[in-house]
Amino acid sequence: MYLKTARIAHAAFAALLCLLMVMSCSRQKETSAASGERVIRIGIAKIVQHEALDAVEKGIQDTLAERGYNVTIDFQNANGDMNTATQIANKFKNDKVDVAVGIATPVAVAMANVITDIPVVFSTVTDPVGARLVTSLDRGEGNVTGLSDAIPTVEHIGFFKEIANIKTLGYIYNSSEANSISAMELVEEGCRRHGITLVSQAINTSADLRSAALSIINRVDGFYLTTDNTVFSALPALIQICRDARKPIFSGDVTGALNGGCMIASGFNYYKAGLATGQIIADILEGKKTVDIPVKFLTDPADSDLLFDLDAAAVCGISIPETYLNQANYIFRNGALTQRDF
């Protein structure tokens, strides 16, 4: 009799527990529905993996978190392959993400070509018009808008000549990327304006960089790097070749130069580029139309960085004037990086 009563009590307790769980779940669903909260899905793809593009991803995440969005992010890497970039774009389209983000020109172009019914935000695209992502910098194009990473290439080359007294400039670029072709035109203009002979070498993949550098290293006084992702994904190889030949490197991307080896690096902060890209995404999530969002540029001097590697300068027998050192917020000396806040 006692055993039977105990079983009945146990069954009643189990039933009550299930009822309470159902009621609890129901209340949670009602609360979620009442608050209008939902998990937002963002697809983010980059062309290759390196420090600058990783920093953009981090900046995007931090902005969305700061603006209070509960997001699930699908991170993808095309590994330098356009076919893979197109596959990723199709994945984002089929997954019906709320916003698709393409970091760097090839991925952004793949997104814009494949996705027409979901907002597409590009980030760190040097020439959005040349890449046919937009027809005007003053507004978005259909479902596409974003941020450009155009840098003052002509001024950089003049600065490089002043510091290193270069007469011939080496430049390696990916001939299959629209942004690299646009950057090449600016490098040519910079060399014309400052009386420098340009020696360029085209590559298709990062695996080509070493042989390309070796083929021109004895014909140049130094190398200039724009924001070419293919080149930066193999930057250590170029640094080693230049160190052995005692030739300086000027990088237009500071984030990619933070591990040392580039005598000068000047450009905007890619983490801050990610923060700005995140603001564009958040504006879209809040209802702003992509066509009403102009292409964004980082124009505030506080968004830019300047780095000098005194170890690399010493190898090349070059002295950096104290006036310029005082303006740098990153300095490499004796193998250690020092950061200064202004």
Description:
Strand 3, helix 4 (about 105-115) and strand 4 (about 120-125) form a beta-alpha-beta unit. Helix 2 packs across helix 10, helix 3 (about 80-95) packs across helix 4 and helix 7 (about 210-215) packs parallel to helix 9. The strands form two sheets. Strands 7-6-8-9-10-11-12-13 form an eight-stranded mixed beta sheet, sandwiched between helices. Strands 2-1-3-4-5 form a five-stranded parallel beta sheet, sandwiched between helices. The protein has two domains: about 40-150 and about 270-290, Rossmann fold (3-Layer(aba) Sandwich), CATH 3.40.50.2300; about 155-270 and about 300-340, Rossmann fold (3-Layer(aba) Sandwich). The chain is globular and about 60 Å long. Helices cover about 45% and strands about 20% of the residues. The chain is built from twelve helices and 13 strands. With about 350 residues, it is an alpha/beta fold. The termini are far apart.
- Helix content class: 40-55%
What percentage of the residues does DSSP assign to strands (E)?
15-25%
How many DSSP helices? Answer: 12
| CATH fold label of the largest domain | Rossmann fold
The overall number of domains is 2
Most strands sheet: 8 strands, mixed
Please state the average pLDDT score. 88
By oligomeric state, this entry counts as single chain
CATH architecture of the largest domain: 3-Layer(aba) Sandwich
Total strands: the figure is 13
Q: Stretches where pLDDT falls below 50 for ≥5 residues?
A: 1-35
Strand/helix succession: HEHEHEHEEHEHEHEHHEEHEHHEE
Head-to-tail CA distance between termini = 83 Å
Which structural class fits the helix and strand makeup? alpha/beta
CATH homologous superfamily grouping of the largest domain:
Response regulator
